[in-house]
Amino acid sequence: MSQHHSSSNPPFPQQQQDLPGSQHAQDPQPQVLPKEYPNGKLAGKVALITGADSGIGQAVAILFAKEGANIVASYLCEHEDAKATQQHVERYQRRCVLVAGDLSKEEHCKQLIDKTLAEFGRLDILINNAGTQVEQVSLTDITTEQLERTVQTNFYPHFWLSKFALPHLSKGASIINTTSITAYRGSDHLIDYAATKGAILSFTRALANNLSGSEKGIRVNGVAPGPIWTPLIVASFSPEEIETFGKNSPMGRAGQPNEVAPAYLYLASEDASYVTGQVIHVNGGEIVGG
């Protein structure tokens, strides 16, 4: 038994049945068999991943390579970590091009897209993941310089990279943005960071609506991690906070990057062909609205 998969459906012919309905008599019959990926869910795809030197970005790069994708790994300056990402990717016989630079600069974002196209001639998946955060007890402690740096690092690259990538994305391509649990429930010591993650959330929804038409057909989604054990945590929080990091989550612990990466894989693959404008929450069980 086989079923032809199509991510788009023609108009259904008029028909009616008595409850509960017969699937056998339905025209056309619903597609129920699992999709097949003999060479991996991302075979032949090219994925550009920012913040891919460590943490969530690194885990996503490795998992994508395992599923057949070639990787462009964007990072700021942690060359040793980035080299480790490259080595992991290459163990799956995939290419990994490392590109260091400051994403808060519009020109570098453009160069990153140009580099991807020069190396691979295509771009199928854009993962906007890089970010920064600085704790402050009060709003009055957040300087204009910190605010500008947080916005320019966390939000502007999502906008710029998506804009520069768009002319080169074909129907079926995927953009996935990393927002945060803080976009939904706030964070008293990360006010500016939470604000940028809220902006990313709204940007994701708006761009998804803009691109979901039949002609463009590019899906845009997000992932909202909760407390995940990454280098950003040890670089941002005090030793006392690190000792209890994640223990307030319903599951009583922090998550690991490789527990978040499968959410990105789902959204990037054809498994999510009917999913756009959505956010997957990987946060250890905290219930958030919206």
TrEMBL record:
<feature type="compositionally biased region" description="Polar residues">
    <location>
        <begin position="18"/>
        <end position="29"/>
    </location>
</feature>
<comment type="similarity">
    <text>Belongs to the short-chain dehydrogenases/reductases (SDR) family.</text>
</comment>
<protein>
    <submittedName>
        <fullName>NAD(P)-dependent oxidoreductase</fullName>
    </submittedName>
</protein>
<dbReference type="GO" id="GO:0016614">
    <property type="term" value="F:oxidoreductase activity, acting on CH-OH group of donors"/>
</dbReference>
<feature type="region of interest" description="Disordered">
    <location>
        <begin position="1"/>
        <end position="37"/>
    </location>
</feature>
<dbReference type="Pfam" id="PF13561">
    <property type="entry name" value="adh_short_C2"/>
</dbReference>
<dbReference type="InterPro" id="IPR036291">
    <property type="entry name" value="NAD(P)-bd_dom_sf"/>
</dbReference>
<dbReference type="InterPro" id="IPR002347">
    <property type="entry name" value="SDR_fam"/>
</dbReference>
<dbReference type="InterPro" id="IPR020904">
    <property type="entry name" value="Sc_DH/Rdtase_CS"/>
</dbReference>
<keyword id="KW-0560">Oxidoreductase</keyword>
<feature type="compositionally biased region" description="Low complexity">
    <location>
        <begin position="1"/>
        <end position="17"/>
    </location>
</feature>
